[in-house]
Design a protein that fits this description.
Elements: H1 4-12, H2 19-29, H3 33-41, H4 48-53, H5 55-68, E1 79-86, E2 89-96, H6 98-112, E3 113-116, H7 120-123, H8 134-152, E4 160-164, H9 171-184, E5 189-193, H10 194-203, H11 210-219, E6 222-226, H12 235-251, E7 255-260, H13 264-272, H14 280-293, E8 294-298
Parallel strand pairs: 3-5, 4-7, 4-8, 5-6, 6-7
Antiparallel strand pairs: 1-2
Helix pairs in contact: 8-9, 11-12, 12-14, 13-14
The protein binds adenosine-5'-diphosphate and magnesium ion.
């Protein structure tokens, strides 16, 4: 081939094209820098005949490329066209844009994060937006360490945290940030507000869906139980719901987190023991599982909700 220009001119001279088509091909399609670069690159593989057979494809490419700058117009939203050579024929492929790839990733992460009765603000919590204070340093560090260790060795058991502190100090928010990060990293995370869940699970007795409702909490890779101690506990909830979920997670070494206004000691002695009458032994059985699953860390400091 002498030059691309000569080649195109000789293609155009073949005659049997309508004048308008001829003009479009010559001035628009064969003038397009991407088309020219593509033909140049594949000049040894494409003869005149093959190029003319694919002229429609080249036209589609140029047309769709112009539209793809405006996402609303694009033939496949969030995608741009690309020329490819396959079986000695020219084809147009639609490739996702950078922003489309980012959008897909966010969507996939959202699907990996399941949350039950958790506020949107917590679901969207982010480490970059966290205010770091000395009172929170230990909890934040432990949370970040967990993420690091988990990502390094996802097949090993990583003990979770029991984050304790008074109302509004940022317990749930911190674990919301952890949930987001872990779901973006590809792990399945489930957050559940325990006081609301216990109301739901009691209602589920009527329609026999207790087991189904418990399964997700038993099986999920990482579970965050929010506000344990604030629910109205009964012996059934303690032993047959919470106890069963925790037992399963312990046996399968599944990472589990808790937030609570109560310390572990208070939870055991003031809450679990008195779910129904006075049952310190049953409370101790639950506490054993919680302690196996999580290390206790206290957060103090200001109540962010008063800001
Ligand atoms: P807790 O669970 O301890 O009662 P939350 O985690 O719900 O408290 O935090 C209360 C509110 O304070 C959140 O909705 C959020 O707006 C804000 N907040 C919490 N922690 C932080 C933080 N580290 N940096 C900035 N804002 C925070
Ligand atoms: Mg909370």
């Amino acid at each position: 081939m002498d030059s691309l220009k000569d080649h195109i001119n000789s293609l155009m001279d073949q005659g049997n094209l309508t004048k308008q088509y001829h003009t479009i091909l010559k001035e628009v399609v064969f003038n397009d820098p991407d088309v020219r670069a593509f033909l140049q690159k594949h000049q040894d593989e494409l003869n005149k005949e093959a190029i003319m057979k694919s002229a429609g494809k080249l036209y589609e490419f140029v047309n769709e490329k112009a539209k793809s700058y405006d996402d609303e117009e694009a033939v496949v939203k969030g995608h741009y066209p690309q020329l490819v050579l396959f079986n000695k024929r020219i084809h147009v492929e639609y490739v996702p844009t950078e922003s489309e790839i980012r959008r897909q990733k966010t969507l996939e992460a959202k699907n990996r994060m399941k949350s039950f009765y958790i506020s949107k603000e917590v679901e969207e919590a982010n480490f970059d937006d966290l205010i770091y204070t000395t009172e929170k340093a230990e909890a934040i560090k432990a949370t970040i360490d967990f993420i690091d260790q988990y990502e390094k060795r996802p097949n090993e058991y990583h003990k979770g945290l029991y984050i304790q502190g008074s109302f509004g100090v940022g317990k749930t928010y911190l674990l919301g940030a952890l949930a987001k990060k872990m779901s973006e990293a590809g792990y399945e995370v489930t957050l559940v507000h325990l006081p609301t869940f216990t109301v739901e699970i009691k209602a589920a007795i009527q329609d026999n869906t207790v087991m189904d409702k418990m399964n997700v909490f038993k099986e999920t890779e990482i579970l965050i139980i929010d506000d344990i101690g604030a629910e109205s506990m009964t012996a059934w909830l303690r032993d047959d719901v919470l106890g069963v979920i925790l037992q399963h997670r312990m046996q399968h070494n599944l990472s589990t987190f808790f937030t609570s206004n109560m310390s572990m000691k208070q939870l055991e002695e003031e809450h679990l023991t008195h779910a129904s009458g006075n049952e310190p032994v049953k409370a101790a059985r639950i506490m054993e599982r919680i302690k196996y699953l999580a290390n206790e860390i206290e957060i103090t400091g200001q109540n962010f909700r008063n800001n």
